Each structure stands twice: as C-alpha cells, then as structure tokens.
Model the fold of this input.
Amino acid sequence: MCGIGGLISKDSTDIIPLTKTMMISMNKRGPDGTGLFVDKKVYQFESPEKIICNTSNNKLALGHIRLAIVGDKTHIQPIQSCDGKLVMEHNGEIYNYKMLKERLQKDHTFVSNTDSEVVIHLLEHYYKENGFSNLLDAIKKTVADIDGIYAIAIKAQKEDKIYLVRDRLGIRPLYYGQNDDVIGFASERKGLWKIGIREPTFSLLPGHCVILSDKISSPIKIAEPPVSSSQTPTITNFDEAVSAYKKALYNSIKKRSQDLSRIGIIFSGGIDSVLVAKITKELVPNVTCYTSGIAGSDDIKFSKIIADELDLDLKINELDIKDIENMLPNILNIIETTNTTQAEDSIPIYGALKLAAKDGLRVVFTGQGADELFAGYPWYVQIFAKYGTQKLREYMIQDLLLLYKETLEREDKLAMSNSIEMREPFLDSDVVRTATNIDLNLNLANKNDVFGKRVHRELAIQVGIPKYIAYREKQAAQHGAGIHGILSHIAEKNGFTKKMITREYIENISKREKLGSSERYGYLFDNKISWNSAPWVQLYLDRLINFNQIACEIKR
Done:
C-alpha cells in the first residue's frame, strides 16, 4: 500500500516542487520511504519533505510514498524494468505474486521480494512480446494475469505519456485532472488540489486505463468486472451454494492473510464482520477486533456479547457527542466530501481505525460488499417482492459496481490516514463470481424475508457462529453505532436548524450526486425517515469544511 502521484508539464513549469507538494499532502499513506522518477532516473528519500532534485528535464515526474506490507522497507518505487524501457508505480496488493514471480524469474532479474516488482516484469514480458510497440496491449494482458487490487501508473521510455490503470472493482483509488500548466494524478484528490488542479477532477473508472500526455484520453476499458457472465444463475441448490461460497471465501481470506501474523478486524457485531473475524481467527495467530460507536449503542452491546461468545479479542472506542464534534472536521478533510451519509458512515470506522493504529496494526479486514452480493439491504426484499429476481439482480450489480466511489474510496482514505491498509475479503474476484452466480431465491426465502443473505448466514452457522448471531437483523453502520441522531443534535447545538434552510439550498442539495444505494433509491422502498438526512445537518457540514475554498466547487 502507498500513495502515488505524478505530473506532466504543459509548458516550462518546474514540476519537482509540485510533485513534492503532492506527496507531502498524502504523507500518511507512506511513512516507510519516498521515491521520485524524473529524467530517466529513480531517486530515493527518507520522506517526501526531503525531496531535492535538480535535473535538466523536468517535464514528467512520478512520485511514490510507501507503506511497507510485503517486502522490507528498503525497496522504494517507482520501479524500472530490467531493460529500462518501462517505469511503474503501484498502490495495492497482488495476491498471486509468488506464483507469477516463479514463472518470470528465469528471464528477469528481481531486486526485491515485493509483490509490486512482479507487475513491472510482467509488463516488460508482454511489452517485449509486442515488439515494444503496444503498451496498452501489454497492460491488458498483465491485468488478466494478476489477482489483486491495484492503482498503477506506467511510463514507457520512448513516450512522454503516463498510463493509469485501476483494478476491476476500483478497490484502490486514483484521481486525475489538469489546469493550464500541468496534467496530474494522485491517490487522493487533495494531492491535486494542493498544486492548483481544481475541479473537475475525475476518479479513474474500475477496470479502465486513462493515458496522460499533453491531454487526457477518454477512459479505455481493459478488464471486465468479476461478476458472473451467465444470464441465468447456475447454482440453484442451497447446499451447493454454501459449499461453493465457503471455498471461495476461505481462499480469499487465505490470500489476504498470507505472511501476516497480526490482523485487525473492523467489527460492528453484524454478521459480515463476525464471519470475517471467525474465519480469520482460524488462519492467523493474532486477530483483534475493533468496534467504535456511541456508548450504549447496539453495535457496542452486540460486539461485546459476540466477542465473549466466540472468544474474540475485542477493543472498543466509546465515543460521546464531544468526541464526534471534535473529529468531524478531520474526517471531512480525509474523505474529501461533506455528504452527510458519507460522514455518518465514516465516524465509527474512523474510531475503530484509531484503536488499530494505536496497536501498531498495518492491515485490517472489513466486511464490505456482502450486502450487495447476498441481498442484505432492507430495501432489496421490497424490490424482490415488487419486481422479482431479475430486476433485483440488476440493482445489486449496479450497487456492487458503484462501491468504488460510494464506499471504497472513502474507507481507503480513512484507513490510510492512519497508515493502515484495509482489505475486503468479500470483494475477492472468485467470491464475487460465485455470489453473482447463485440464484437469488436461495438468499431471500420469501417476499417478507427481513434477513436476506441466507447462503451467507448458513455458512456462518457451519463455521461455528450461533444462529442468534448469524440471524441478527441488518442495521446500517450509522444506526447501529448510534451516529445518525447525534449529528442532528450537534448541528442544532451549533445553531443550525430547520429555519435556516432556504428553497435555494434545497435545490442545491437536490443537484448533488447521490452516494450510496440508500440515497440513490433505497429510501423509495424502505423507511424514508431512516435514510433521509436533515438538510440543516448537511448545511452544518458544508459550513464546517468549505471545500469550495479548497477546490472550487468540488463535486460532492
């Protein structure tokens, strides 16, 4: 894991100081060293603050800050290929890197034991195979071979171009944009804002490539999302579904825990995080669960009960109103939006991550993605009852493919603000393919099913989770942690009330992008009051962090 960024100058702008500024703005993403590629050479520094580089050709630069997970701390990116024809930087994890390295090492010289180095040699292999004439084709072949999550920047020696690549579900973030002087990219939008690249900036689409040169190309699809391609589900037997899912999920957690002796779990007491914790504890020597919320909230009460029942090591960050009020400005700055739902969801996760960081954890697991795969949201059963399985499947796939900007980018930033890598076992490609190939009638027993996720819950029971835990009814993070009502109280305490809301402001809110299925359509099928945020709370958050001053009408 790390932070990556880079710039191409449109004129004679010196981009070294700008690249340095970008990397400093994201320094929590990479406490273990800094690398800079400029003028055909890679330079290493202890930290981004210490970047000093005087070269004759500063038209293009790549910057990298590293959080060391795989391999030791001495090997800094960007990485160059054996023949020097390619340079690359990678943010993410490649889970099949050992197998790929064994395949490649006969013809390539490896200088580290990192997973990222495997990617550059794989690119080199396919680029050479193409006669060094088609880098995009080499990229497509490379991403077809790698099993992992990634945001990658690649430059060929003979081209003043940067190729940006993102994994199939967009688990790792990457943004790009331009102004009159430069074209740039970064792992966080603030890396662009800090150097004067204003909105609009763009999030690279999952499974796509964008080419930066003296202009920005349109996104080019290089990989399909890992959902089942079958029009009709082929797994129609319940026991077969549970068995296939069990195999895929265990393999996913094994991949994500290889070579690790300590892992944290972002733990809500809901079945998703409980299942991840239970299986991870079988595979990893030291597992600690982290829960955060308002004292006395359902998530905290249930987390304690479940941890005792399953003999899980649990640490709790109990928050009060003052804690939340104090942390809000920092959270909004981290997630780069004032969207109320995004802020509400962030608070318990951020509180849990602070405990994990205090314990020195570098990797945490989360239960993200299970609801979209196994029909866990309360409005899914309403869609099922009204429209049937085909329409529901369309909604679920849409939600899954929008996770990148509605959830994953937010949670990546929260984790990396604490120098922690977050991993999502339910979003493994094999798990996703398996889940999207299961007949939805196996997950929803009938049109009044308040639980959903029947295959998911049955696996939980099979691995030793009591039924009363496996069938705990779904609560959204902000409700289970007691956050939803607290923000309204804080806003009102600071003088933000219904009386302040104008028709113009309501119209402003209505034009903003809806983030999360509860905002986009869930309220139409479920309890509207539970999911609609009070506009005076939104106004309070807008005033708390004025992103317009930072980035000129940031799109929220």
Summary: The first strand starts at residue 2 and ends at 9. The chain has two domains: 2-221, 238-481. The two ends are 26 Å apart (CA to CA). The domain at 238-481 is CATH 3.40.50.620 (Rossmann fold).
